[in-house]
Design goal:
elongated
Amino acid sequence: MRDFEQIKHNIRQVLQCETTAIGLCEKLFSPDHGLFSQLAQSEEERRTVASSSLFLEAQSRLRELQLTEATAFAKSVDQAQNSLSAGTFHWKTEGIHRSESA
C-alpha cells in the first residue's frame, strides 16, 4: 500500500531543497523511481496526478531551474567567447611524467 501523504510530503521537500533541474527531474519524474510515479499506477491515476496542483508546481519549478541553468551556461559561453576574442584565454597542458623504478 502506498502512503500518498508521505509521498506528497517528500515531493514538497524535493521542491524546496533540490537546486538542479536534473536532480529534480530524477527525483520527481523518473518512470522507475520518481515520486510522482509512486503516486500513480494506472492510466487514470496518472492523468489525475498530471492535472494536480502539486504536479503543476513541480513542472513550474523544473522550468525555473532549467532557465536558471541555461542562463548561467549562456553567460559562461559569452565569457569564454569574450576571453578568446580578447586573446586572454590561455590553454595550459601538463606533460605526463613516468617515474622509473630501479
